[in-house]
Structure formats: structure tokens, C-alpha cells
Amino acid sequence: MKEFKNSKKPNYANTIRLQIPSHPKYLSLSRSFVFNAARDNGFSLYDSADIRLIVGEAVQNIIKHAYLENYDRPIFIDMEFFKEKVEIRIRDYGVKSKLASMKSYDLSDYREEGLGLYLIRKLTDHYFLDQSMEVGNQMVLMKKK
Asked: How far apart are CA 143 and CA 39, in angstroms?
């Protein structure tokens, strides 16, 4: 295996991965998975519930916007645990989101459109959408303990 300079070597002892199809029936499974993983790695009940909510919202957005409600595409959820935080990477191979058209929830608007991105913004310590891959998107979420 060839090593690359300046690349971070993954720590597989602290990294877990879940792959699910892009079907809404797996939302509950993904939410339970990240909640239990966070609890098992020292996160409080409240922080674990926040992680469950933001990952559920991100997966729901992938199903709706990246995969256009095609239910047979892969979604990967990686969680890497550090002493004081978790880094969550949610990867799809769907349509690239148009960053300019992404908008967060407007509190004066009575509709629920954009609520997922609003919750992600409010409940994480840092997040970004990585579109540097040739195909698809990867949302990176960080939450401190």
C-alpha cells in the first residue's frame, strides 16, 4: 500500500462506518446507530440526541436532493471519535448540491423547508459540504463533547 505525503492516516480503532440504501425506511436505523455510537463513546444524552437529529436530517436531505428520491443508492456514514469531539462524514454519490441555492430556515416562514440545514447549523460546532469529489457530496459535521 502506497503512503501519500501530507495525508492523514485514519485511526481505524476509533472509526466506525454504516452503509445504508437511500430508502427512508433506513432513517431510523441510521439515527439509532449514531445515537448509540455517541453514547458508547462518552457523549451526553443531550449531545447524542443532537447527533441523532442532525444525521437524520442530513440523510433525509441526501435522499430528497442528491438522490432525487431514488431508493437504491448508497449512503455512507463514518464517525471518527476523538478525545473531545466526533467527526461525522456523510457521503453520497448523487447530484451535487448547488451551494448558492441552499438556504437555511427562515424563522418568519411557517413552512418547514430548510429546517434540516438550520438544525445542522445550530446543533453542530462546525459543518461544511465538501464537493471536491468528482461525483457526489460529503457533509462533514463536528460535535464537541
From this structure: 13
Sheet holding 126-130, edge to edge: 15-21, 74-81, 85-92, 137-144, 126-130
CA 120 to chain centre: 9
Q: What is the pLDDT of residues 110-130, one digit of tens each?
A: 555 568 888 999 999 999 999
What is the average pLDDT score of the chain?
88
User: What Å distances lie between residue 101 and 17, 62, 65, 96, CA to CA?
Assistant: 30, 15, 12, 12
Cβ atoms 129, 137 nearer than 8 A: yes
Point out which residues pair with 16 in neighbouring strands.
Answer: 79
**How far is it, in rounded angstroms, from Cα 132 to Cα 130?**
6
Sign of the CA dihedral with 88 first, then 64, 107, and 104 last: positive
Report residue 26 as a C-alpha cell. 433506513
* Helix, strand, coil content of the chain in percent (nearest 5): 35, 25, 40
